[in-house]
Amino acid sequence: MADDDIILSELDDDELVQQMHDDLYDGLKDEIEEAVQILLDRGWAPYDVLTRALVAGMTIVGADFRDGILFVPEVLLAANAMKGGMAILKPLLAETGAPKMGKMVIGTVKGDIHDIGKNLVGMMMEGAGFEVVDLGINNAVEKYLEAIKAEEADILGMSALLTTTMPYMKVVIDAMKEQGIRDDYIVLVGGAPLNEEFGRAIGADAYCRDAAVAVETAKTFIARRHNQTAAH
Fold this sequence. Notes:
Rossmann fold, 2 domains, 5-stranded parallel sheet, 9 helices, 5 strands, globular, Cobalamin-binding protein, Cobalamin-bd, Met_Synthase/Corrinoid
């Protein structure tokens, strides 16, 4: 049966959610927006639409991206479709006070103007239910520090694609230490020339080799943080 024959509104809830996973995978933005609206009209809570339809669908995309089955262009399309659905849900989630995964400030470091990897991480993080504040490219230490404080972020993500700009990540982390705020934030770093050893050497919490790993790592650290808070 061709996709054109599927009338979304005629599917039952389970079929529709399954179809949304497929449509996200295929990057079909219009279909995702329509399906989100259908579920809301059927009385679904915005948080359930987010987690069961969108986040669950993007988790499949993330896993296949990590395993080399999907590539950057396809993931960008999927993330764009996700964004369409999120645009409908965001105001509703704010109203209902839905539980938040956490908040991330992300940006490429000073002297570096590469942003495809960073954009992908931002989109995948949003796809996992995180709130993301993207500072763009070429960020000086002051800009990062102002943003994480102003946004009350949980996570700081820094990206670099040049070996010459990599060391700037340490400048930012050292400045956080000087201000006594390093432990208030989870610091994740990424970019082609980096590796785990470098991440450890500069004092980051983790190096993430791609967007799928970034999401998994962020979830792990946030969960750990919640557990520590609960234990106190």
